Amino acid sequence: MRKGSHHSVEARKKISEANKGKRHSLESRKRMSEANKGKKLSVETRKKISESHKGKTLSLETRRKMSEARKGKKHPLYGKHLSLETRKKISEANKIAWQRRKQTLA
Fold it and tell me: DSSP letter string over 11-76?
């Protein structure tokens, strides 16, 4: 196709139908993943992503899997010791977050 020319609506539909159900290979997916790592998303894009996730509830199975993925040695703070000052900061931040959450739910 020449530069500057566009596919017709029918041609785009035909291409779309031909590609439906096709999956990228693991190798291709890995390359695409690597290509997008480190890219900074615009504020607008981040807001769109945030809006699309709001109100969604995760299934019990998904929540269980997420929980398992962060237990024991896989937990990011496993084996680390936080100072009393750091623990107080976390505690205060959590209190504020829960107050905000209660206000939005009420």
Answer: HHHHHHHHHTT----HHHHHHHHHHHTTPPPPHHHHHHHHHHHTT----HHHHHHHHHHTSGGGST
Note the Cα 43 to chain centre separation in Å.
15
Mean pLDDT of the chain: 94
Radius of gyration of the chain (CA): 23
Spell out a b/e string for 83-100, using b for 16 or more CB atoms within 10 Å of the CB, else e.
eeeeeeeeeeeeeeeeee
Question: Hey, what amino acid is at 34?
Answer: E
What would the pLDDT profile of 50-66 be if each residue is shown by its tens digit?
A: 999 999 999 999 999 99
